[in-house]
């Protein structure tokens, strides 16, 4: 896949592409480690597991805050400095999660992790759109394949730590060191200067919101649903099938691996279908995957099958939603992408916490079945977007 401009890239510009992919890999690790860490983190901080969903909310709240404050800079040269600083802060936040002993300490560390994640996690999308504008949907799915790889590796890091007689803290320390390497990569790279006009005036923001409101709703519903599955799957598997911790970590890793494979498939599929058509198909197949997953309490093999189907269906949704936002607002793709990420973070702040809160009253299976509701709402959003396109 060649840059749309067709110009040869210098070494530091090539490092920009490497830095984008390395950053998204670490984002995947950050997103996927929290769920398998949750039981031990709740025990270490002295809170009931049913209340541990607060960590998802704090993580997402930090992400929302950073995205809203910094969205405008994704269309400005200042984004390079934010990528360097955000990478350093993310590495520090991983280390703080590992060293926290109280709810206050862990909550601040997790929120800081979410804040730094959005600081470094939105600009690579805009940079890739700048470099591969003519094939943005395929390029963004390729970029987010690396998020899937990181998300697959994250639970494996937790599982490896458990097998070695340690816990989540070792995995977070390893991630902290890796993130500092990413910081060095951004320091020596040279991202392209943004070519879009900045969206600083209120009328421009109102126009952007009016154009993309349903896309933002779609991102919110999807990301919240993904985080319910990815965040609570470890606990769900242990509670419904008495699965051992190491095996449950493998199940979570399988979910993220399937997401990766779904994104790989989307790179080819998008040559034949539109963004909207792919999103509609993914939502329907994802609902079927939830149904199969819920039967895992009766036949454990179906739990594994359902996780695979669900991950394959979910894989293309977020990067294709980003591409759809860029397609509908091509002159403000950086800001649009940032707001898509912020909308997703709002969903991640609400739905996983709500799922955990409902578990004592409707059970784990009931909380997982409830995610069919946001999937239904996603179909409504897609129909509305198609009607306005």
Write up what this structure looks like.
By secondary structure, the protein is mainly alpha-helical. The protein has one domain: MFS general substrate transporter like domains (Growth Hormone, Chain: A), CATH 1.20.1250.20. It contains 14 helices and no strands. The protein has helices spanning 11-45, 54-70, 79-99, 103-121, 123-131, 136-163, 168-188, 202-241, 245-269, 275-294, 300-314, 317-328, 333-369, 372-388. Helix 2 packs antiparallel against helix 13, helix 8 packs across helix 9 and helix 8 packs parallel to helix 13 (333-369). The longest helix is centred in the middle third of the chain and has 40 residues, at 202-241. It is globular. The two termini are 28 Å apart.
In summary, what is this structure?
The chain has helices at residues 11-45, 54-70, 79-99, 103-121, 123-131, 136-163, 168-188, 202-241, 245-269, 275-294, 300-314, 317-328, 333-369, 372-388. With 389 residues, the chain is mostly helical.
Instruction: Compute the number of structural domains.
Output: 1
Average pLDDT across residues?
A: 84
Largest sheet: none
Total of helices:
14
- Which structural category do the helix and sheet elements fall into? mainly alpha
Terminal CA distance reads 28 Å
The residue ranges in which pLDDT falls below 50 over 5 or more consecutive positions are none
Superfamily (CATH H level) name: MFS general substrate transporter like domains
Radius of gyration: 20 Å
Please identify the top-level CATH class. Answer: Mainly Alpha
What is the succession of H and E elements?
HHHHHHHHHHHHHH
Fraction of helical residues: over 70%
Q: What proportion strand? A: under 5%
Shape label = globular
């Amino acid at each position: 896949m060649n840059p749309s401009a067709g110009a040869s890239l210098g070494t530091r510009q090539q490092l920009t592409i490497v830095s984008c992919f390395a950053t998204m890999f670490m984002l995947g690790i950050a997103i996927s480690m929290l769920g398998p860490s949750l039981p031990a983190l709740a025990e270490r901080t002295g809170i009931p597991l049913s209340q541990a969903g607060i960590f998802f909310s704090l993580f997402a709240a930090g992400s929302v805050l950073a995205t809203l404050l910094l969205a405008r800079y994704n269309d400005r040269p200042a984004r390079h400095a934010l990528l360097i600083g955000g990478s350093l802060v993310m590495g520090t936040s991983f280390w703080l999660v590992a060293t926290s002993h109280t709810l206050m300490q862990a909550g601040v560390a997790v929120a800081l992790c979410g804040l730094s994640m959005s600081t470094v996690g939105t600009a690579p999308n805009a940079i890739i759109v700048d470099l591969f504008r003519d094939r943005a949907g395929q390029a963004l799915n390729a970029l987010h394949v690396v998020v899937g790889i990181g998300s697959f590796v994250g639970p494996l890091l937790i599982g490896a730590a458990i097998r070695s007689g340690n816990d989540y803290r070792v995995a977070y320390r390893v991630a902290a060191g890796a993130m500092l390497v990413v910081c060095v990569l951004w320091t020596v790279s040279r991202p392209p200067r943004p070519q879009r006009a900045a969206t600083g005036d209120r009328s421009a923001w109102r126009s952007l919101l009016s154009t993309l409101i349903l896309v933002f709703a779609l991102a919110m519903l999807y990301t919240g649903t993904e985080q319910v599955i990815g965040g609570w799957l470890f606990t769900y598997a242990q509670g419904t099938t008495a699965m051992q911790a190491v095996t449950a970590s493998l199940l979570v890793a399988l979910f993220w691996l399937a997401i990766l494979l779904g994104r790989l498939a989307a790179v080819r599929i998008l040559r034949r279908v539109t963004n909207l058509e792919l999103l509609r198909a993914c939502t329907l197949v994802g609902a079927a995957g939830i149904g199969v997953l819920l039967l895992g309490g009766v036949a454990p093999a179906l739990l594994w099958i359902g996780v695979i189907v669900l991950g394959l269906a979910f894989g293309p949704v977020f990067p294709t939603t980003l591409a759809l936002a860029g397609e509908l607002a091509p002159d403000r793709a950086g800001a649009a992408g940032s707001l898509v990420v912020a909308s997703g973070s709002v969903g991640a702040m609400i739905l996983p916490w709500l799922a955990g809160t409902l578990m004592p009253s409707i059970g784990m299976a009931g909380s997982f079945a409830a995610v069919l509701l946001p999937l239904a709402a996603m179909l409504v959003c897609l129909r509305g977007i198609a009607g306005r396109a």
